[in-house]
Amino acid sequence: MSSNQPPKLPLKIFRLYCSDERSEELEGDLYEVYAEFVEDRGGKFAGIFYWWLVIRSFRSYALKRTKMKNNRVNTSLTFLRHNLVIAWRNLLKNKTTATINVLGLAIGVGAFLAILSIVRFELSFNTQIPDKEDIHRIYTSFTGSFTQTNKGVATPVGPHVEENFSGIEAVAYFHTYSAGVEVVDGEERKDFERQSNLLLAGDSYFEVIDQYEWLAGKAENALSEPFKVVLTSEQARKYFGNEDWLDMIDRTVIYRDSLKVSVSGIVRQPDYNTDFDFTDFISYASIESSWVKDQFSGDWGSTNSSSQVWIKTSDNVNKSDILLQLEDLDKHVVEQTDDGDWVQSYKLQHLSEVHFSPDIGIFDNGRSPAHAPTLTILGIVALAILLIAIFNFVNLETAQSTTKSKEVGVRKVLGSPKSQLVGRFLTESILISFFAVMLAIPIAHYSFVFFEEFIPDGVALDYDSLVFWMVIVGLTLMVGIIAGIYPSWVISSFRPVRALSSGASSNNPGGSFIRKVLILFQFLFSQLLIVGTLAIAWQISFMLDKDLGFKEDGVVYFYTPYYEEYSKSELIKNYLDEMPEVREYALQNTPPAQRGYSTSTVKYKTDSAEVVTSAHQKSGDTTYLRFYDIELLAGRNLLPNDTLPELLINETFMRDMGFDDPREAVGATFDFNSKDHTVVGIVEDFHFRSLHHPIEPLLYRYQEKSRCFALKVKSEQIEQTIDKLTDKWTEIYPDYPLTVYFMDETIEQFYKAERQASKLASTATGIAILISCLGLFGLISFTIVQKSKELGIRKVLGASILQIGTILSKEFILLIVVAFLVSTPISYYIIDQWMEDFAYQTSISWWIYALGGLVSVAIALASIGAKVWKASGANPIDSLRYE
Question: When comparing pLDDT for 883 and 759, which is higher?
Answer without folding.
Answer: 759
